[in-house]
Structure prediction request, 228 residues.
Amino acid sequence: MKPDEYEDYAEVFDFFSRYMRPDHLPAFFEKVARLLPEGALLVDVGGGTGFYTRQLLDLRPDLRLTFVEPAPEMMAQARARLGDAPVFLEELFTQALPELGVQDVFLFCRSLYAFYGEHGAYQAMFDRLYHHVSPGGLLVIWEFNQRMDLRREFKYYGAQTVSQPDVFEQFLRKWPVLRKAMMAFNEKVEAGIYTLFGKGELDAILVEAGFSSVESDGNVYIYRKPSE
Ligand SMILES: C[S@@+](CC[C@H](N)C(=O)[O-])C[C@H]1O[C@@H](n2cnc3c(N)ncnc32)[C@H](O)[C@@H]1O
Prediction:
């Protein structure tokens, strides 16, 4: 999704984040929290409203965070949530890159798909990024790897909320915004504006850029820059 499309979506984003499948994001952030070295310099790329970033910082208050998010509506919520300590860059990632210097970890959580529509542009981006990662530093990526199934999502969130009538009523009110966002996502994938990655495609790009694959689990991928 491009940053200017987040006006309405930003308003419902946290509601749906709260009911996200527990086997997805929360486990992902617990894993990230265990993985990162003490005091690591971390960049959250396309961090959205900071909903999950807050949870990561609660687990790991020692992390030194730079938060990159180009959509003003998302960034406003992230600033309110994350306090004064992080560096906030309200820019597209490639615009922010020169300001980042060298960092220990880059986290891409459900954001990479929106950057470009073709692999060549990702290759150029990761080639540049390599020079901003410390020796032994990590890229941690959680990506969408399929189109949104609207019926499945409606059923899932409905089942999560139906036992609490006021929450279910909120879900029904907010659903059209999520539905529209998911339809726009699918259309942009079809149109070649967004990119869905599988492991083979991401591996090819990241290895070419100089990183090695540490592990992958479903659509979570971890890469490391070799230590010097
Ligand atoms: C689906 S949201 C994910 C937000 C958050 N990481 C999470 O998982 O809850 C995708 C985010 O990527 C951001 N984004 C899109 N294109 C971007 C780009 N070129 N550089 C940085 N962020 C971008 C969007 O503004 C949006 O906030």
